[in-house]
């Protein structure tokens, strides 16, 4: 892993991040989120729980939402499977199902709060798109491209549009809460992707 891909190594301007301090901040933020929720977080509270100074936090992150976003990105990378089973249908169901399962728990409320924050803070909105949304889309598109390489999806399929087809309904259900993000929903989304990907070949 190089410095550009290691979040603990990114710090500009200023000194490189200390891996120990970075892990302490991540762990403290996760604990505080469980105990107090997103709205209860403050830079002072995170710094105290992590055993670091507030200047350290501000040198690495501009605000609380940015720290929480980093926590959520790391959790998503670790907990939502990007398997390579040889079947795009299986991989899609597992990936979409993992995403829905994650958002059905406390993480769903946190993500809703971050999305609301992005509507009010243009600077954070840009970072949220570039660092979180884009990363999750890239994981999904990698699965779709494998499917095209295996001949299960049309090589001419619009991968960006197919990613929208997946994430649009997920975010809609998450924000409106009108229906469950369950296994049936995840399977239906995967089937919709497969159907529309192959329609594009006609």
Q: Report the order of strands and helices.
A: HHHHHHHHH
Please compute the radius of gyration using only Cα atoms.
Answer: 18 Å
Q: Which structural category fits the helices and strands?
A: mainly alpha
**Biggest sheet descriptor:** none
In the predicted model, the low-confidence regions spanning at least 5 consecutive residues are 1-5
Number of strands: 0
Measured by DSSP, the beta-strand proportion falls in under 5%
Helix content: over 70%
Oligomer: single chain
What does the overall shape look like?
A: elongated
Q: State the distance separating the first and last CA atoms.
A: 42 Å
- In DSSP terms (H or I, runs of 4 or more residues), the helix count works out at 9
Mean pLDDT: 91
What does the model show?
By secondary structure, the chain is mainly α. The chain contains nine helices and no strands. It has helices at 19-36, 43-50, 54-60, 64-79, 88-104, 106-120, 122-150, 159-176, 183-199. Helix 1 (19-36) crosses helix 4 (64-79), helix 5 (88-104) crosses helix 9 (183-199) and helix 6 (106-120) packs across helix 7.
């Amino acid at each position: 892993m190089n410095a550009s891909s290691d979040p603990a190594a990114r710090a500009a301007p200023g000194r490189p991040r200390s891996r120990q301090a970075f892990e302490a901040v991540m762990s403290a933020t996760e604990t505080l989120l469980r105990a107090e929720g997103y709205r209860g977080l403050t830079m002072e509270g995170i710094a105290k729980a992590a055993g670091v100074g507030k200047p350290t936090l501000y040198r690495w992150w501009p605000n609380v939402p940015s720290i929480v976003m980093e926590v959520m990105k790391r959790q998503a990378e670790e907990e939502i499977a990007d398997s390579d089973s040889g079947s795009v249908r299986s991989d899609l169901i597992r990936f979409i199902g993992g995403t829905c399962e994650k958002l059905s728990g406390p993480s769903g409320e946190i993500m809703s709060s971050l999305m609301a924050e992005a509507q009010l803070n243009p600077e954070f909105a840009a970072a949220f798109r570039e660092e979180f949304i884009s990363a999750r889309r890239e994981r999904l598109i990698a699965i779709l491209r494998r499917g095209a390489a295996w001949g299960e999806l049309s090589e001419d399929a619009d991968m960006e549009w197919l990613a929208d087809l997946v994430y649009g309904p997920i975010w809609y259900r998450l924000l409106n809460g009108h229906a469950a993000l369950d296994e049936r929903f995840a399977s239906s989304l995967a089937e919709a992707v497969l159907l529309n990907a192959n329609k594009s070949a006609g």
